[in-house]
Amino acid sequence: MKLTKLLPLAALTAAFVIPDEQVMNQVAIETHETSSTISHKVPSKEQVHNCLEDVFSKGLRASKNTFDQALDQASEAGDKIAGKFGDAVANTKSWLESASTTSHGHHGHHGKPNQTVYQLIAESKYTTKLTKLINEYPDLVKALNGSAANYTVFAPTDHAFDKIPEHAPKPSKEDLKKVLEYHLSAEFYPAGRVLVTHTIPTLLEGEDIGFEPQRLSTNIGLRGLTVNFYSRIIAIDIFGTNGVIHGVDSILIPPPTTVDIITLLPGEFSTLELGLTKTGLLPILNDTSNHIGGTVFAPSNFAFLKLGPRINAFLFSSYGQKYLKALLAYHVVANQTLYSDAFYKAEGVDQSGIPKGLFHVDLPTLLEDKSLSIDIGRYGRLISIKINGFADVTIEDGIAKDGVVQVVSSVLIPPKSVGGVLQQWQGEELSEEELRERLEPFVGQDEL
Ligand SMILES: *[C@@H]1O[C@H](CO)[C@@H](O)[C@H](O)[C@H]1NC(C)=O
Ligand SMILES: *[C@@H]1O[C@H](CO)[C@@H](O)[C@H](O)[C@H]1NC(C)=O
Ligand SMILES: *[C@@H]1O[C@H](CO)[C@@H](O)[C@H](O)[C@H]1NC(C)=O
Ligand SMILES: *[C@@H]1O[C@H](CO)[C@@H](O)[C@H](O)[C@H]1NC(C)=O
Ligand SMILES: *[C@@H]1O[C@H](CO)[C@@H](O)[C@H](O)[C@H]1NC(C)=O
Hints:
Layout: H1 3-14, H2 21-32, H3 45-62, H4 67-91, H5 95-104, H6 117-123, H7 128-134, H8 138-144, E1 151-156, H9 158-162, H10 173-181, E2 184-185, H11 191-195, E3 199-206, E4 212-221, E5 224-227, E6 231-240, E7 243-248, H12 258-264, H13 266-278, H14 281-286, E8 294-299, H15 301-306, H16 309-315, H17 321-329, E9 332-334, E10 336-338, E11 343-345, E12 357-364, E13 371-379, E14 382-387, E15 391-400, E16 403-408, E17 416-418, E18 421-423, H18 432-439
Parallel strand pairs: 1-7, 8-16
Antiparallel strand pairs: 1-2, 3-4, 4-5, 5-6, 6-7, 8-9, 10-11, 12-13, 13-14, 14-15, 15-16, 17-18
Helix pairs in contact: 1-2, 1-3, 1-12, 2-3, 6-7, 13-17
Bound molecules: 2-acetamido-2-deoxy-beta-D-glucopyranose (5 copies).
Residues 259, 263, 282, 286 line the site of one 2-acetamido-2-deoxy-beta-D-glucopyranose.
């Protein structure tokens, strides 16, 4: 793998701007080993890469199951979470709590708070670096010390900052502010709400998603509760008068682009990347000036595998290329960013709420006149996203700078018209002829 590819990859885990390979390697060590076992050996590129894949896609492998199994796991997970949180709080050596006890003699975070979230952070001995950074931006200090909103702060501990290599070049003040803003929400998300939420809006304006708030995703996995798949929540519910703080163990880096996510995770998306490259769609997706946000339903390598060797051989032959292009275009939605619990539409209408219970939307794809029929079922933490009544999103809300990646474990095949009635593909075995027939109407469309 080329170094140029690895750079943003490291940023996806936990770095600011990564200048060279060695620095990047250090970051990789820090992100996948616990603080007590940090070794200073420099891992191979391979290890760096595995580490990232591990962090991002653990959920992928674990989630190739049915809705029922998901339900079982979710309720099981629910039981375990309470215990996990207990540990997490203990593990942080009472973190902010000790700061407020030392400065005020008695209370921890149980009494009624009388300090702002800014004051709590400023007085904690575990967040001195964050404090120093916030202090560079008087408007942020004023906000976090004021009552204009009840804020949620994902506060990186000093240890999280230690993961930044010493000699990494300092990002511009403007970029650093964006990083800070990505840790702050103007909405109130105590832990109980975080648990039943999949994405959280931050103060960071998403330039490539129509200046809507850039969102964070929350994930429950083997590492407990994480934000954007890599930053572990290690302390919860430190309440201030104007909001709540959760401690995180890695700095939250504003997200990479959709194309970065696809190209940097070959273990999941190498087939998709190959297809997008062969058909010339990759540069179109990568051009953020031609879309305002968007949703890519990204089939995993596993999804392509399920189509069988004959269909893959056809699609990836030079003869099949135009069919492949039509097929992939059917997975891309421009200008509408559909998270599992929020929806940004480019055309001015702010439809950011997705109601609890059932929600249906048809999303137009790059394939002319062909929409994807999306059904979202939301019951607390448990969310099911079904496409065309059949395919499941297996990993939700891969947050991208220019949209969102929803991973599907089946390739999505356009419906066919039988006597004027659209027949959706329901996963039945598909012959090459049948696939060609379904894609024929779209082959060679002008804009593709
Ligand atoms: C916060 O409240 C405690 C009593 O609960 C008091 O001793 C302390 O002085 C208060 N601090 C501030 C900054 O008002
Ligand atoms: C924060 O607000 C308090 C009043 O709530 C004020 O006494 C304090 O000086 C403010 N701190 C900063 C740094 O502005
Ligand atoms: C913050 O929360 C408190 C308590 O729920 C509420 O009274 C107050 O109006 C909220 N402030 C803002 C700005 O929403
Ligand atoms: C996407 O575009 C950026 C510049 O906008 C470029 O640096 C990057 O290499 C491109 N990625 C791919 C996979 O073409
Ligand atoms: C997305 O929006 C941009 C800007 O409004 C527009 O130029 C483009 O044609 C739209 N793309 C699609 C596929 O609708």
